[in-house]
Amino acid sequence: MTLTVNGVTHHVDVADDTLLLDALREAVGVTSVREGCGVGACGACTVLTGGTSVSSCLALALRYDGAEITTAEGLDENDDVVSSFVECGAAQCGYCIPGFVLMSAELLAENPRPSEQDITDHLEGNICRCGTYPEIRRAVAVAAERRSPK
């Protein structure tokens, strides 16, 4: 099968039951996609396909043959979302942050001027065990402010 990950095409062999998470980590070498819960409830495995979030721990890899997938590595370090997470101190251990960053990017693509409630609602499926939710929500708001026309 073929996966285009962060703009690079990879030809990988996977079994019928291989999860997208495992294909990305083991066959492609992407390390930001992580298994947190294994049941799609924590967001650590989030990737974007066509700009839409996918829990890669639940998705069969074969379903994404030919798909374009974005992981946290695919975002530029100067991206508004990435830089706002750094500046707002929105990470402690960092395990969950790639998923939060991708969910935030998805939100801002859909809703460039989200309210605080919009941010909270969109990130509801992601879990941060360190409890940096206020900093994460602030980082999304800062990114939205940066993207708004002055």
From TrEMBL:
Q: What is the superkingdom listed in this entry's lineage?
A: Bacteria
Protein keywords? 2Fe-2S, Iron, Iron-sulfur, Metal-binding, Oxidoreductase
The record's annotation in Pfam families points to: Fer2, Fer2_2
**Xref: InterPro entries:** 2Fe-2S-bd, 2Fe-2S-bd_dom_sf, 2Fe-2S_ferredoxin-like_sf, 2Fe-2S_ferredoxin-type, 2Fe2S_fd_BS, Beta-grasp_dom_sf, Diverse_Oxidoreductases
- Domain 2Fe-2S ferredoxin-type per the UniProt entry, residue ranges: 1-75
* Record-given protein name: (2Fe-2S)-binding protein
